[in-house]
Design a protein that fits this description.
It contains eight helices and seven strands; from the N terminus they run ααβααβαββαβαββα. With 189 residues, it is α+β, with helices and mostly antiparallel strands. It has two domains: 55 residues, no CATH class; 122 residues, Cytidine Deaminase, domain 2.
């Protein structure tokens, strides 16, 4: 059974910071933004000690307004535009709920300067765990050209086919280049 404790009591009891910055920050948080984690669910995390468990008993949930919603490929670019600074290719999956709001952003592959490889298994593993309604695949081209390669189109077709089988739709596959982007789905795949 989960035990709910006040965040301030946890800070007073176990935090070496006492009523410092951490306590003031927790006072500012809205009480409705907390969820309870049972001690038994934390026993599998090896790096925790008994003294830190009370501090982790109260975890802040992200507020609903912090979840960006995706209405167009431009929204995807705004969420992921920092990828244009990466030195190697990375593949991310944006997990969406039914209202097309992002519930998670997952890095599934880190590649080299010119390629990154991911299988449908890696793409949909997170989608199943996050209970995603749909997904958007996003990757970067460090060279700056956002035009899709033949491998990008083949990868997108495989993800679309796998998504149809398990019932999780790939809404788009967006490639981010040097301050530009390209939507493969809108391009005609």
């Amino acid at each position: 059974m989960a035990k709910t404790i006040s965040p301030l009591k946890a800070v007073k009891k176990k935090s070496p910071l006492g009523r410092g910055k951490l306590a003031r920050r927790q006072e500012e948080m809205d009480k409705s933004s907390y969820t309870v984690i049972s001690e038994s669910s934390l026993k599998y995390i090896e790096f925790l000690t008994r003294d830190t468990i009370p501090l982790l008993a109260v975890v802040q949930k992200p507020a609903k307004e912090e979840r960006p919603c995706v209405r167009s490929v431009n929204d995807v670019y705004e969420i992921m535009k920092d990828m244009n600074r990466e030195a190697c290719e990375k593949i991310y999956i944006l997990h969406l709920n039914r209202k097309k709001c992002v519930i998670a952003k997952e890095l599934i592959a880190i590649g080299s300067l010119s390629s990154a490889i991911a299988s449908p298994r890696e793409v949909f593993k997170g989608a199943l765990l996050y209970n995603s309604d749909s997904i958007i695949c996003v990757h970067n081209h460090p060279g700056g050209d956002a035009a899709p390669s033949d491998e990008d189109i083949t990868f997108t077709n495989r993800i679309v086919a796998a998504g149809k089988i398990i019932g999780i739709r790939l809404i788009d596959h967006v490639i981010i280049g040097n301050n530009n982007y390209h939507s493969i789905i809108n391009w005609g795949v």
